[in-house]
Amino acid sequence: MPINFPNGLPATEILEKEKIFIMDEERSTSQNIRPIKILILNLMPEKEKTELQLLRLLGNTPLQVDVTFLDTATHESKNVSKNHLDTFYTTFEHIKSKKYDGMIITGAPIELFEFHEVDFWQELVEIMNWTKTNVTSVLNICWGAQAALFHHYGIGKYPLPEKCSGIFDHIVRDSTVNLIRGFNDVYIAPHSRNTSVSVEEIEAHPELELISESEEAGAFIIVSKDHKQIMITGHLEYDADTLKQEYDRDVAKGLDPEVPKNYFPNDDPTKKPLNRWRSHTHLLFSNWLNYYVYQETPYEWE
User: For substrate, which residues are the binding ones (predicted)?
Assistant: First the structure.
C-alpha cells in the first residue's frame, strides 16, 4: 500500500524510480480507507536525506501510511532551506490538538551536549509528554532514543572513549517479541554516536525490556512494556553510503576520524560499502507498523 505525503516533496522522484508506491494528497483523500497517521519529528541536519530513508521504509508494508513532518520551533535548521521547511513541515503548535497512530523521533548529532543544554530541549520535553496521550507508539532513533530513555525512564547517557562508528553484530534476546519477529539470531546494524547508555540500568528498570544488544556497540533495541516507547540506539535506516559520507566529512574537516569498523570492504575507505542490513531494517519497520501501531491504535480516536 502507498505512503501519502505533501505534494512536491523532493524525495518523490527518487521513490518513484525505486518503485515505492506513493500517493498524492488528492488521490488519497478520494479513497475510503483509514490510513495510519505517522508523525515524524526530523531532528537530523540533512533533513531531505532522512526524509527519503524513512519514507522508503514506511512505504514497504501493506498499510496505507499518511506522513506528517514536524520541525522544532525553537531551533533554526542550517542545512535545509527555509522554503523546504515552510512547504513540507509543521510545528508542534499546529498539531498538538491532533492524535497520531505512530511517531518517529530521529537522532541528532548533539549527543555530546547535556540534554538541558540543547536549545530545543524544553520543546522536545513538551512533545514527549504529549505523546503519552496523543500517540499510540513512538519509535525513537539514536539521540532520540537516548532522549526518550532519559526523559521517560531517568536513564542517562555517558561519553564513549572513542566514537562508536561502523557495522556491528547484534544478538536477539527473545525472538518471540513482535518487534523483532523474523530476525536472525545474530544480525548486523550501523551505529554512529559518541555516547552510550547502560545495559545494567535498562535491565533493572521495571518498565523496560532490552531485546537486542551488541557486544561492541552495547544496548540496541529497547521496548517499554506498554509498547508506547521503542528505543533504537543505532541507525538501521542508514543508506549504504551514509557512514562513508560522515567519514569523508570528518576527514575533510581535518578531524582524523577512525575508519568505521566492519564497514568498508577489507576496511579500505577507497572501496564502495555495501548495505548488508537492509532486510532487517525493513522487517523492523514493518513489524512496528503492524504490531505496535496498526494492531493497537483505535479506528477512531476519541
Answer: 163, 192, 249
Q: Tell me: the pLDDT tens digits for 270-300? A: 999 999 999 999 999 999 999 999 989 877 7
Catalytic, out of 51, 142, 191, 213: 142
Beta strands 186-197 and 157-172 are antiparallel
Residue 165, marked binder: no
The pLDDT assigned to 136 comes to 96
pTM over 0.85: yes
- Locate cell 525513537: which residue? 140
CA end-to-end distance (rounded Å), the chain: 26
192 is in an annotated binding site: yes
Domain 3-160+194-239+278-294 is in which class? alpha beta
Active-site residue 227, yes or no? no
Answer yes or no: 191 catalytic.
no
- Which of the residues 170, 191, 235, 280 is marked catalytic? 235
Rounded CA-CA distance 251/259 in Å is: 10
pLDDT band at 9 (very low <50, low <70, confident <90, very high): confident
- The neighbour count for residue 154, using CB atoms within 10 Å, is 9
**Domain-by-domain residue ranges, the chain?**
3-160+194-239+278-294
